[in-house]
Amino acid sequence: EAAELIKSVIPNAKIIICLRDPVERAFSHYKMALEMGFVKGCFLEEIDKDFRKLDKTWGVSELFIELGMYYKQVKRYKDIFPKNQIKVILFNDFINASQSTIISICDFLEIKKMNISTIPKMNTTLTPKNKKLHYIISTLRGKSLIQSIFPNKLINKMKKYYFNTSSIQISINEQRYMYDYFKLDIVKLEKLIRCDLSRWKVNKN
After folding, report:
1. Which residues contact 159 (CB under 8 A, 6 or more apart)?
2. What is the pTM for the complete model shown?
3. CA atoms of 19 and 146, how far apart (whole Å)
4. Could you tell me which of 66, 5, 62, 1 has the C-alpha nearest to residue 31?
5. Reduced to 3 states, what is the DSSP secondary structure of residue 194?
6. 3-state secondary structure of 120
7. What CA–CA distance (Å, rounded) separates 51 from 8?
8. What three-state secondary structure class fits 62?
9. Which of 44, 75, 85, 112 could bridge to 81 as Cys pair (CB 3.0-4.6 Å)?
10. Domains of the chain and any CATH numbers
């Protein structure tokens, strides 16, 4: 109901929609859930298990797949707002061609152009060395106990022994497996936003 509510309160609102490769988004979401102790299994195991859940309530299901099904989400806004009030940008364009993307956003918003050299990485995830142990500690509120006993400085030093220093990477086979979930939605989305999304399909066919 968010789109309808925005339209009723701010009918002339400018809507900016940023879309990330749904496979990359799902994997990033999984890494966050792993770090938070919400899941303990491997990537595809958790994806399939979550997708099969009947209860799709936020907080019960992670919605790894559902949140990456962009077509209906974008169409909801396009059905309510006129074309000149909606701008769709791609996440990788925002990261890799940040200045040109920022300029296009400023033009869309009809504001003074801004100069941005780089966009720093935020909320980078850490991967626990022992997923199951981390899940147990998180479930039993062990993190709260640890934080109440040890000072933050010591906790930060302990992290290098508890978490891997390098982030896990998604494999080509995992990308191809995940792409099967999204390929039909991507085709419909391309037509809806009139944008070539072939970059989301690379190495996944």
Report:
1. 126
2. 0.78
3. 37
4. 62
5. coil
6. coil
7. 34
8. coil
9. 85
10. 2-124+173-195 (3.40.50.300), 126-166 (no CATH)
